[in-house]
Automatic annotation (TrEMBL):
Gene3D superfamilies: Leucine-rich Repeat Variant (1.25.10.10). Residues 423-451 are annotated as: Disordered. SUPFAM superfamilies: ARM repeat. It comes from Chrysochromulina tobinii. InterPro entries: ARM-like (IPR011989), ARM-type_fold (IPR016024), DUF5578 (IPR041090). This is Uncharacterized protein. Pfam families: DUF5578.
Amino acid sequence: MPAAKQLNAFLRRWDTGTRASRTKQLEEFVARCADMTGPQLEDELENGASLVLTRISAWLRLSYALGHSVALQLQAIAVFVAASSGQRYLAEFVEVGGVATVVEILSLPQLPEHDKHEAMRLLMAVANAGRHYKEIVCDGDGIEAIEAFMRASKSEALLEDARDLLVTIGRGNPRFSTEVHRALLRLLRIESAHAQRLACAGLRTLLKVLPTSQLYRKDEEGHPQPVLHEGYCEAAVGLLNSFNLQLLYEAGQLFSVLLATEQLEESLLRHLIHVLIDATDPKRAPPLHMQASAARALGQLVASLPTERRERACVELELVPWLCTLLSRETFSPECQKAAVQALQLLGLTGSADAEMKRLLGPQAFSIVMNAHDAVQAALSLNADMLRTLQPQMDAFIAVHRRHLKPEPLHLPEAMSTLLESAPAEDAHGEVSADEAAVTGGDTGAQPKLA
């Protein structure tokens, strides 16, 4: 960086210099001015900071378009944008389309990871400047670019940078916060376990700060209530299909936050119980490890509820019978039995389901479940003789449940649906057709419609 009162010489060197000389100038500038405030930069550059920033921004647009590394340019721009009391530089950078340029850099596969790390760092500095600048990042397709980057990237460090940036632009940004939530929910369904885990942690962070991280409406008392839907619970429960222990841990942490959200408590428990319900149907049965994880989560979550809500959940969800189906399964699964025992132990310790557990398990099996120090040993101790009273009860329970299931909707072929919709009940003159008259016996009075 030139000394004071040598700005003209610095700009002349820049305008006439090669790529190598400009690189050296930027290295000196970053080393000298990295921690300066806005007024200090202005003093250092003899009131010509805007001229320097403009030249660096223009070189950035030229370099990334040609496929050259742009990490150094991004670092230099961040010196201006992130400087304390340097809002004028940030506004100037935004006015020349700098944010859109940096967002586009994230989507270029030919650029090295270091460039994208610096791009994330610069976008974070822009987003930290306030709601207006968060909206500018989003208006430049920032959310879509970050989501696409997390889908494609394999670098753990870059994925963490992207997750942190999504969380930052999702807070205090009501215009785009819902889009951020949707992006994180979509990321929960991708194949990359690491990206799933980071998205799960990011969504948990945003849910903890509701309603500042989500659109909301006011209730009758004027208090803000976030607008949420059961898609959160569906995506979270789907994580149980993974074998990744770190991801399963994050899913458990997300369950706790969803349970603490009044609008999602019932939906979460019902999605978890549906895993056990589907397990009784060979055509829809989820993997055994998912059944075990769902049973374990149900025991932990329901046991953590206040007494009144816990008792209501046990009754409405028929939780104890569905957990007992894992013990009486014909296809033996030690993991499912262990998870069922752990869940029943937690419910038994709360005192909310003792009577029903004794009725279903019998006194001997109930005693083994409640007094066991090791769930594996307890599951192995529940032999066929002890569960003889449980099996017929579970068969009857499942049979009753199947009788109350609603039939699946009839899906007609598209041609047939079109034909039915276009068939007129009356002709153009309002007279009943001959075929209809034959069916109704000529009575043109009001007829009951088929359901």
